[in-house]
Design goal:
The protein is an all-beta fold. The chain folds into 2 domains: about 160 residues, Immunoglobulin-like (Sandwich), CATH 2.60.40; about 90 residues, no CATH class. The chain is built from 1 helix and 23 strands. The strands form 6 sheets. A 6-stranded mixed β-sheet has the order 11-10-4-3-14-15, with no helix packed on it. Strands 19-16-23-22-21 form a 5-stranded antiparallel β-sheet, with no helix packed on it. The protein starts with a strand and ends with a strand.
Length: about 300
């Protein structure tokens, strides 16, 4: 526990005439800083023979704020602690770098094996990422030479328990945090996890919850270039509908008057409608614009 030390000078109430000065020293415990909001999103005990080096652990940042992990030989804010075979002592891995908002941080066992299997570089590599399904992994704000235990804020398994035959036993498999779990948990909770194949058919290093687009990623925005708000108009592309705010615009570049969406579209044709009615489309200054009927107002659509 953190302690603060204060020194006060107090006037004695016993002999006020003497104006005696008394010095008192005492300590006041301070509450610890809040635990990070990060959580373990996935661990893969990679199964195909000869590729145990492709094992990895993934940490997810569910917030809208970057989380600074630390810089090598400068400062450290986060550790991964591994407890093997029911042990209560751990091996810790110091983490370095930053986890972007709503993004993940992947720590793999071996660079060559991980890249060969998954096709991209992990954020960090450590031989400590070598659990074989019955080991415990935890996130902590302390680590070797200090004990990470008192500061563990998220955990996969139970410290001091061999995981063989338990609900977290994932020998040769991948164990993944469910999408609806958006906060760390200091207590192992089986309902928060799903176990699947220990290979690339189930494991998804590099992303959590929102899969990257494997088809055509199209960024679309609709804005009011007239300057008086959307007036209830909408833009529909296939089953996606953009509805903008009815606010006054400072200019046709005012972000408040734009609605933006990223769509992952497979090859094909898509019906595009403006305000649910007939429209015209034109190319203007490198953009695609549409308007309803013969209206003089054009809505800009950026593809």
């Amino acid at each position: 526990m953190m302690m603060a030390r204060f020194t006060f000078r107090l006037k004695s109430q016993v002999r006020p005439a003497a104006n005696e000065v008394v010095t008192a020293t005492f300590s006041v415990p301070l509450p610890p800083p809040p635990a990070p909001s990060l959580l373990i999103s996935e661990y893969c005990d990679y199964q195909p023979g000869g590729y145990s080096g492709a094992r990895f652990i993934e940490i997810y940042n569910p917030t809208d704020t970057p989380f600074y992990l630390g810089t090598a030989d400068v400062d450290t804010n986060l550790y991964i602690a591994k407890y093997s075979n029911g042990s209560t002592s751990s091996y810790t891995t110091i983490l370095e770098g930053t986890i972007a908002p709503n993004d993940v941080f992947v720590v793999a066992n071996n660079q060559d094996k991980f890249v060969e299997i998954f096709g991209f570089e992990a954020d960090q590599y450590s031989s400590n990422i070598s659990g074989n399904g019955d080991d415990v992994f935890a996130l902590s704000t302390s680590g070797y030479p200090a004990d990470p235990g008192p500061n563990v804020f998220d955990i996969l398994g139970e410290i001091g328990v061999d995981g063989s035959g338990t609900a977290w036993d994932h020998l040769d498999q991948t164990i993944m945090r469910n999408d609806d779990v958006l906060a760390p948990n200091t207590v192992w909770t089986a309902s928060e996890w799903t176990i699947g194949a220990g290979d690339e058919t189930f494991a998804t290093p590099g992303w959590h919850i929102n899969a990257p687009c494997a088809d055509n990623l199209v960024s679309i925005s609709m804005g009011d270039s007239y300057g008086d708000g959307w007036n209830g108009n909408t833009l529909s592309i296939g089953e996606t509908v953009l509805v903008g705010p009815d606010v006054g615009c400072e200019s046709d570049a005012d972000p408040a008057c734009f609605a933006v969406v990223d769509l992952c579209l497979v090859d094909g044709s898509y019906l595009v409608t403006c305000d649910g009615g007939s429209f015209q489309m034109r190319s203007f200054l490198g953009n695609c614009e549409c308007r309803r009927g013969s209206s003089s107002r054009w809505w800009r659509t950026l593809f």
